[in-house]
Specification:
By secondary structure, this protein is of the alpha/beta class. It has 2 domains: 212 residues, Rossmann fold (3-Layer(aba) Sandwich), CATH 3.40.50.300; 67 residues, YebC, transcriptional regulation domain (Alpha-Beta Plaits, 2-Layer Sandwich). Helices cover 35% and strands 27% of the residues. The protein is built from 11 helices and 13 strands. The chain has a 6-stranded mixed β-sheet, with helices on both faces. A 4-stranded antiparallel β-sheet has the order 11-12-10-13, covered by helices on one side. A hairpin with a 2-residue loop joins strand 11 and strand 12. Helix 5 packs parallel to helix 6.
């Protein structure tokens, strides 16, 4: 058996006004959680839809669990689970009914009782779908993606729009899926989510993969272990004159300045002295470690949410 759950080579998809996926190569190992990151319009969802068999690629090869869509599409569908960005169900269907209905479509399925326990919806088993909270609906959608006992599970922005508590509840389900030996491929806008869940990840922009690796290795490759932030009340001013005096790159992000540095202890005295000399009206100084967001900003100049 191959160690790869998924192999993609030269994947390409163009629409009339945009090339959504432009020569993507990826490999996902069995048993890992693999993240696909990028801003809106980067090509993440289109890539996932092609892999899932929902959209046809213009070019490229896809191997899923050693199978390909042209000859073995039926087998692939029985062995993968998919949670889309949104799942529409009848208002008056219950979680138990939905799981039993979806399970009837497959030759092998997990029991509704088992799945309801997994996603912590036992007490909502017979409640109408319309009465479930956003977090409960997302957990049900994840249970539906697991109903056929899949080996490979695709999750497209599974926690978007959820409150912090609901997000972390869903994280625990993803961790449980991995502990069962399944492979998970997910897209997300949340950097804390990617760092918490993903063994490896790829960053996409303009339809291309621009970086792959573990969260730790991507941050280490940045060679900027720390970022000093100056916050302002209201919008941050233009940093160019101050950056020239400081002799250091300064990035403006909404109401703060970000100054990447390998040695914050050496930077701080110069920074505070220059800020006082220039009468910079900053509110607070904060030092943090570099993150995946910094990796993306460094490589593309854009926020992951832009």
């Amino acid at each position: 058996m191959s160690d790869s759950a998924l192999r993609i080579r030269g994947l390409r998809k163009a629409f009339p006004k945009v090339v959504a996926v432009d020569g993507v190569d990826l490999e996902v190992a069995r048993g890992e959680v693999f993240g696909l990151l990028g801003p809106n319009g980067a090509g993440k969802t289109t890539t996932l839809e092609i892999i899932e068999g929902l959209t046809t690629a213009d070019a490229g090869d896809i191997e899923i669990l050693g199978l390909n869509w042209k000859q073995q599409g039926r087998d692939i569908r029985s062995r993968i689970g998919v949670q889309l960005q949104s799942t529409s169900l009848f208002n008056k269907i219950t979680p138990r009914e939905a799981l039993e209905l979806y399970g009837s479509y497959y030759p092998k399925c997990r029991s509704a009782k088992e799945l309801l326990e997994l996603v912590q919806l036992e007490d909502k088993a017979d409640a109408y779908h319309v009465t479930l909270s956003g977090g409960q609906q997302q957990r049900l959608a994840l249970a539906l993606a697991l109903v056929n006992d899949p080996e490979l599970v695709f999750l497209d922005e599974p926690t978007t729009g959820l409150d912090p508590q609901a997000r972390r509840s869903l994280w625990e389900v993803v961790r449980h899926i991995k502990a069962e030996g399944r492979t998970v491929m997910l897209t997300t806008h949340y950097m804390d989510e990617a760092e918490a869940l993903c063994d490896r990840l790829a960053i996409m922009d303009h339809g291309k993969v621009i970086a792959t690796g573990t969260p730790a290795s991507l941050i280490a490759d940045l060679a900027i272990p720390s970022v000093v932030e100056l916050t302002f009340e209201g919008g941050a001013p233009e940093p160019s004159p101050f950056a020239s005096r400081l002799g250091q790159a300064v990035e403006r992000r909404a109401d703060l300045w970000e100054i990447p540095t390998p040695d914050p202890k050496a930077l701080l005295p110069r920074l505070l002295e220059s800020a006082e000399a220039e009468a910079i009206p900053f509110h607070q100084v904060h030092i943090r470690r570099a993150t995946l967001e910094d990796v993306f900003l460094h490589r593309t100049g854009r926020s992951l949410r832009e």
